[in-house]
Fold each of these.
Amino acid sequence: MKILFLHGLASSGAYKTANTLRILLRPCDVIAPDIPIDPHAALSLLQELCRQEVPDLVVGLSLGGFWAQQLRGTRKILINPDFHVAGLMRSHIGTNSYLSPRRDGAETFEITPQICAGYAELEQHQFEGITPAEIALTRGMFADHDTVVNEWDTFDLHYPGRGVHYPGEHLPTFPEIKHHLLPLVGK
């Protein structure tokens, strides 16, 4: 099985969830790119990566869930997805630090009003083209104690009955991934 892992804001493909997936789903091939902060560059990169790699499953965490849900025709699991990224980003305009190492060595990134506007534009169209087949390809996993984002209602509106809750916080731990994500991978 080939899995594409999409990290959240201020993170990278080296984020611990990617390594957790590699351990728990061995011998699966887990691809975990560093996603650009620019929204149009990010979506273009991820669509091209899906065309080239043809993953069996996409797992997106937080902002990665925002990206994953837009990769139509691909089986996906969204973990605590943030469907309203622009609002969060507006509170972080300026220079920000990455929380995990990037392949290019970058330690900081810039959030500008233009980047926020780009995310707002994508948000307006992110749920277009959802068919019954797309709903069947999509699962969601939501933490009961997420203080960063809570998009359960939005997810359930567009993907009714496709989400599950887990007793955790925004960033799932190794045991939470093992006990709550792995059953979704097998479905």
Amino acid sequence: MKETRIAKRYAKALFDFSLEHKVPEKIIDDMKLIYSVCKLNKDFILLLRSPIIKSDKKQNIINEIFKKHIHKVTLTYLLIITRKGREGFIKDIAEQFIILYKKYKGIITAHLTTAEAIDLSIRNQIIGLLKKQTKADIELIEEIKKELIGGFVLLFDDNQYDASIMKQIKKLQKEFDINLYIKGF
């Protein structure tokens, strides 16, 4: 909880700064890159959170990794955060910045989980229906889970629609467990 609050504050400060200087599109690309680096490289996160490694060493590492790939404002921001001892929150700050940017642009992320891959026409229908309901742009993230057997699970905002066969099977199992008839007759 505390980490999220800290990350939100730092992300909001960077987001407000990016709006003032009219560079939110450049910064969002940087934040997506930083988030993916942090998510894919656990050693990098461990290095950032290590109390043994000194701040100036961490700044040099961040500078070497990112200076050719991100905007000057973002790099300066990362170095300031590191100097202030908040480098352990970089992944969370990047994630919160992405959330703020999507909210600012009116983009809703929807997660669609299916048993099999869906084709482009079904994908477009789902996006169209969600756009119609939410009146926002939709970013659809697809995931395949064979254990659903069939159907789909759709998550967006704080809503979940579960139309999977696995859910139907579990529902039937509960009904059989509650069966009022005595077994054996």
Amino acid sequence: MWNADKFEVGAIIKRNGKKVEDLPLKYTGKKSQFSATFTPPGPGVYTAAVYGYDPATGNTGLDNVTFIVKKAKK
């Protein structure tokens, strides 16, 4: 068991290859679940590099996801 408060978890959001936002993810209270709210600034191809980092050991995990926004919400 690890303490989620001692880890940095976040996502680096890019749109069409350019950085849009560094998004910190908060622990939801459920095992292995973190969340945040992101509002896309417009249509495009987005990627999110989602990471977990333990500053005490330097251990890091990373995964990427791609999603397409066709129409921005008004």
Amino acid sequence: MAKTQDYSKMMNDMMGAFPMMDQKAMQDMFKTHAQMGEKMSKVVLEAAEKSTEISTKWTKDTIARVGQISAVKEEPTEYTKAATDFASRSAETAAEHMAAYAEVAKKVQMETVELMLAAGKDIQEDATAAMKKATTEATSAAKKASAPAK
């Protein structure tokens, strides 16, 4: 019977073939990435929740108005008036709900920009720290190599 490939061993072997100068920097990078993903997920889920609330309210309003328009009327002209009122109110609520969707989109956009700016700052700080450490290590190694043998 065929043996299942051990992917965790394969990944460990692959990562071992690419020696990293600083494992902590890699861990910090993954941690920063995971935190960014969590924050972005929160923004997206809040937007989805708010959009769902808007859609639900819009649907309930429309169903209520359909109930009014489908009710039996005494005079034929009342049907025309009911249809006109329905169309007019539908246009008004469409504008209101589209404005609400626009507010949700604007909030998502602002929060995303804030997260991206913060992430850029974090990445820049991490890169600066890594470069300082690498420079210090390279300088130390160069001094050792150029020191006269005793």
